[in-house]
Amino acid sequence: MTAELVRGQNHPLSQARLEIRISAGTPIVAVAALGDENGRIHGEEWVAHPGAPAQPGLEVPRQAAADHRLAVDLDAVPEAVHRVSVLLALPVGGTGPVRFGAVAAPFVAVTGLDGGEVASYTITGLEAESAVVALELYRRQGAWKVRAVGQGYAGGLAELLADQQLSQAHQLAGSIDDAVSQGLARSVQAPPPRTADGDRSRQTAAPALGPDQGGTAPQPGPVPPVSPYSGQTPGGPGQPAPQQPPYPGSAPESDAVPQPSAPTAAGPIDYSHPRRQNAAPPPPPPAAPPAAPGQPAQPVAGDATGWSMEERLYNQVWGMFEDLARTTAAYRSAVDFAESRMDKELEQVLSDPRSRIGGQGDAAREAARARHAQLVAQAREALDRDLAQLAAEADVVEPALPPAYARWDNPAWHAYRVPMEIPMALRLGDLHLPEADRIRIPMLVRLPLERGLWIDSGPAGSSDGSSTDSHAMSRLAMETAVAHAARLLAVYPAGEFTVHVIDPAGSGAQPLAPLVQTGVLAAPPALGAAGVADVLGRLTQRVDLVQMAVRGGAADSLPPGFDTSQQLLIVNDFPHGFDDRAVNQLRYLADEGPAFGVHLMMVADREQSSGYGPLLDPLWRSLLRLTPVADDHLADPWVGHAWTYEPSLVPPGSQVLQQVLSRVATARTKFM
Fold it and tell me: For residue range 96-116, what is the model confidence (pLDDT) as tens digits?
């Protein structure tokens, strides 16, 4: 039976290997600290945090996330340790909430490796605090107990760690903040939460049963050079096509964020999602085909809530993303439990001289392996059931997606017409996990872009283990950037999106040909140092002007004929052609541009810019890193899985990109 603790209450622990599960509804940082009998932390090596996630007996996640699983092995902590404290903090320097009083009360549960809950604690009463000691596991007379603490600190992690008598508190807090901010480049951010009113669940013909209904409980100057773009060079070869996301957008501060529900390996997927909701009762969803007796309901495209089919599909994709993340987490947890149980049983056999050799020992070892195989098989069976359900849903959702959400090989692009309205989001690629390689989750980012993009042209290995040389990677990176820019141009109404290109050495001439030849660029790509300075100067001036107008409350006082469209700057071959002034302007655009309609797309190898030192680190962290080849560098906002990202590229030989851009160019001509 689960003990529901209140502040100050304790409960005995009968197991040494535990999981601590945390759900906060918004990305938070989880830290675990070891303390002596007086609660003192002896040094940084006694703290497990995103920059050093593993310490003796402890393992914590490497990033900020809305949900965490911390692994604790009390038998493995040093003898001098008498306390294990679980610390939670809100990320510093982000766009999310800055105090716990603005989010839902964090929920913490101590469970066995089998998922059984031992004790839980909802941390209420927090207001201005940005860090909190959630609970502590402590040793008393040879036995371990858990105590609900709930002590908050308005001064954040630095104040909290100092109160734990750590002499390097401020330095360690800075290291943790730095590690978390570095993780932003790989983290897919959840979409903004909606209001708490209205229906929060996806409507299905056969909803999942609750525990009281027989079901299971839900668990990112000089002369200009000759232009290489003046000739009619053919376009570069295409590439095969493909969650706040991704998907996108950081969540604004909210007073109430619903708690997510987690499917487990013990039951079917629970289709209740805090992201599948609306502020008011939505129109009825499409009717689902009747299910055969004893079979789950057939999936329907657009069965999430929303005012339009576009919004329904957006919410449904996010629901699928969350489902896959959680059901895979349940499977991995079950497998970890099976392995730890087998290890413990084998250890017991080896520790007893009487059963170490002979038939009795062989039988015990065989029994332990058989139990392990049985547990893994049960977990896989539950996972396969959930994956089949999600695969069926993906099969009906993918063909129904509008162009903004669809792959380049989707027929929706062949029927493309320039839209009259901006869509909710844009597809930048696909995400998948090794346990479910067949299921591809569209990676959708909210529009307008809230974060710049970094197409990494550095050396990398593909998902099949092969490597790509630097010249080929640079070409692939530019083709990826062109595909993304074409999508942005295509989904905005005529005249509402403008693309600029900086290509100092002209090395991207071939991949950029589709954009240049169709005439959709604002001007030919800028070349040399003079071109770099001109484009950056104009865009920086634009941001300054709009910023002053908006902050001065005189947005309608912009000069007549001022271009109010969203602006995208593609920078190729950085840092070639950039001096210190240009680098500072680039950082300014990355930081201030998105809020005032100027967005950045960097095509660069980070190592080539290392000569600037740490000056550029904040730039890379502020951008969502994407790769031109499949790579497992992105993480979800719930459990922090490493997801393999595949870019959204045009299939080889397809003319769809040229056709779409030609229609965009025609519409822009009519608009002007």
Answer: 788 999 988 999 999 987 778
